[in-house]
Write a structure and sequence with these properties.
The protein has 331 residues and is mostly beta strands. It is built from no helices and 35 strands. The strands form two sheets. The protein has a 21-stranded mixed β-sheet that branches. The protein starts with a strand and ends with a strand.
């Protein structure tokens, strides 16, 4: 079932608990000024819900939602968000979403499932503040045209999942205070702003897309936040040179990739049997500062728009693949 109100809202005709939408297939709702903004829309059956909305959202669902895709674009307007589901005949909600928006900020107080897994995607044109998201083993994808930050500056977990986490934000991720993840090992981060993020898990896959360099930036991305970091990526972008260091103990296999318009300098890395991939769309790539540096990975892929310099001792158990727009220099 797909309902779209291009200029108005979607609401029930009578304010009661009668089911308004019932299907075992997907439910897709899109409205400009609100969905259930007069009284809660009542739905039933579907495990997949897609919502695109500029206003308030209020929906009560009978059945367990396992896939939730939200596009919430309040702009500068005020909005309230409430979504609950429950197993048929169940009294307690399994999925609970509570949040609000105002003055260009979307605040997600809580979005969590009591049991089971939820695959979640949320996109917004506002700055995003996250209290707590918990999705079992479901993947979490958040995208903001502004920034993504924690609601409270503390050590509490902002995203708890055994699945992957993808965060995209134009103006920064954790740029106000460190953004905290639970036992997350597979992470993709995209931003042209500062990034400060820590995970309780051990990284196995870490991908950074840092876009086009428009100003100096700082990055601090670490795992095992309850103890000594196993992988800790500390990077600084100054005058279109991104210097990347890994100051962790580096005891496990790590697949690590970085894409940027900056020139890239990776001082050293021990990735085990993981992969290393560096892409500079407008600059140079350099491994190590001298031949005393060491880069170890299962495979190494380097793509530089200009020169590629291999100054470090580079050890690979599988392959080394280098492509340069200009010179390749090997120490």
């Amino acid at each position: 079932i797909e309902l779209t109100s291009h200029l108005g809202s979607i609401n029930e005709a009578v304010d009661d608990n009668t089911i308004n939408i019932a299907t075992d297939g997907q439910i897709r709702l899109s409205a400009l000024t609100g969905i259930g903004n007069q009284s809660a829309i009542d739905s039933q059956g579907s495990e997949s819900l897609t919502v695109t909305n500029h206003g308030t959202l209020n929906l009560s669902h009978s059945g367990l939602i396992t896939t939730l895709a939200l596009t919430l674009n309040p702009g500068q307007d005020d909005a309230q968000y409430l979504l609950e589901d429950a197993a048929a005949g169940g009294a307690a909600a399994n999925l609970t979403l509570m949040g609000s928006a105002g003055a260009g900020v979307l605040t997600l107080d809580t979005l969590q499932v009591a049991s089971g897994d939820l695959t979640l995607s949320l996109a917004t044109n506002a700055d995003l503040l996250v209290g707590q998201i918990a999705t079992g083993e479901g993947a979490v994808t958040l995208s903001s045209s502004g920034s993504i930050n924690e609601l409270l500056n503390d050590d509490s977990v902002n995203i708890a999942t055994q699945g992957s986490v993808i965060l995209t934000a134009n103006n920064g991720i954790g740029n106000a205070s460190a953004f905290d993840l639970g036992q997350v090992s597979n992470i993709q981060l995209s931003s042209v702003g500062n990034i400060n993020l820590r995970s309780q898990g051990h990284f196995t896959d870490l991908s950074l897309n840092l876009g086009n360099a428009i100003k100096d930036r700082n990055y601090n991305i670490s795992d095992n936040s309850a103890g000594s970091a196993n992988q800790q990526i500390v990077a600084t972008s100054v005058d279109q040179l991104l210097t990347i260091e890994n100051t962790g103990t580096q005891d496990n296999d790590l697949s690590f990739s970085t894409t940027s318009s900056d020139s890239l300098l990776l001082t050293a890395l021990q990735a085990g049997e993981g992969s290393l991939s560096l892409y500079s769309t407008a600059g140079d790539i350099q491994l190590g500062v001298d031949n005393l540096s060491e880069i170890t990975a299962g495979s190494v892929t380097l793509r530089g728009a200009n020169n590629v310099k291999l100054l470090a001792k580079t050890l690979s158990s599988n392959s080394v693949d280098v492509s340069s727009g200009d010179d390749i220099i090997i120490a």
